[in-house]
Write a structure and sequence with these properties.
single chain; alpha+beta; Rossmann fold; D-amino Acid Aminotransferase, Chain A, domain 1; 3 domains; six-stranded antiparallel β-sheet; four-stranded parallel β-sheet
Amino acid sequence: MPTTDTATAGAVEGRRIVVTGVGANPGFDLARSLQRLGHHVIATDAQPLAPGLLLPEVTARVTPRADDPRYGAAVLQLCRETDADALIVGIEPDLPPVLRARRALAAAGVRVWLPNAESVHSCLDKAAFHHVLTEHQVPTPRSWLPDQLHQIPDGTELVVKPRGGHGAQHVHFPATLEQARVLCELVPEPLVQERVHGEEFTADCLVDRAGQASMVLRRRSLVKAGLAAVAVTFHDERVAGQVRRTLAAVGALGLSCVQGFTIDRSPDPVVITEVNVRVAGGFALAEAAGADLIGQAVNGLFGRPVDHGRLGYRDDVFLTKYTETLATGAVSTLRALQEQS
């Protein structure tokens, strides 16, 4: 995988950066990428055994869960204690409390690069996302709330999921409308969507403060539990155009990933399904294909210009991911190591 030349004019060097949610793929790989760029990572997660807390040379810290009222204050105190320069959110649940703490973090000298609260909400809430994209005439699956199920046309294939879900949790594919009704009683804050069939893709995106967007497109050839286990880069101006329209519609800023489908024999050949306000779990493919995604994101985070010329990439570069055992051992030993860090 190519590395970024930190001697390049304008590149940000050796900062102390908090990465949240290092127990999940996006945060874990982000921590490693930042380390390769010469930054010191302060890795955080609510799970004491999160794999990212075990990465060599990170400062490991356990935080409350994002839905704990103490989370924002705990992260702020953590940043002060570790002399952090910046914070990057690695998982969706951390976004709302970090947004609420953004002014306090800025006052403490901690940089955070996120869009405004309305933009984040429109991406976290799938019903709001559907409304925004429909309003901007960006093709997206038809969606219904539980009290709107009578509006669903006969024969429509459906998927039931939480409005605020992530990581493919609580996602179900009912065979009938009656099954969908039952699932709406079981799934937390449910949303019913039209099921889309086609070739799934992700766009790893970076939007600068002037609104210019660069992206790396990759086909999700094999998806497991919402994560691209096999992916291959490609170029397609139709897809790129719809991704840009989507980013503009939601007011994206900084790192994000856009997901959707390309569909043959359809009046809408590109359908957008979601935007995640974070780096994607498979972003390492963007870097392997030549895009300086994280390096340029760090530049933007610290107020430097984003060099979009360094975000180009090659077609037909592949990525495969698998689950491995990172570490085993005594919990007492691990706790001692974390206390020392």
